[in-house]
Amino acid sequence: MHVHTGDNAVPPITGTDLGDVLEDLEGIHAGIDLIRDGLRLLALSRHDLNDTQVLLATLAGSPDGTDVLGAVGQLIARLTNPDSNPALRTLPLDAQKEAIRQGELTAYHLGDPDLRDSASNANAALDQ
Hints:
The chain is 59% helix and 0% strand. It has helices spanning 17-24, 30-44, 49-60, 68-79, 93-110, 117-126. By secondary structure, it is mainly α. Helix 4 packs antiparallel against helix 5 (93-110).
């Protein structure tokens, strides 16, 4: 969908999929609110081609997982591990082990280079 705005302004995100998701995430935790604010700032800022390419690589375009998507995976692994999240230590041992396993699987899947292909391809398409 192409939105044309006066004076080539950056269009608002209200009423878009991104805007709706950011609205749904409001008030869960101060850290999530900071992420929301950062994503909103990125979405509403004017970027040149170089900035856009850097952002694509930083968000989800790094072949080795050193991007925001990879960081989210590592955070999930940390939150599901009783060694780094004391809240899980009261759970039965089998539940702790399953939480660890699922967190590690999430980090593994979010680290998959195939997830980055589209962002990398978009980045390459901008390289003129």
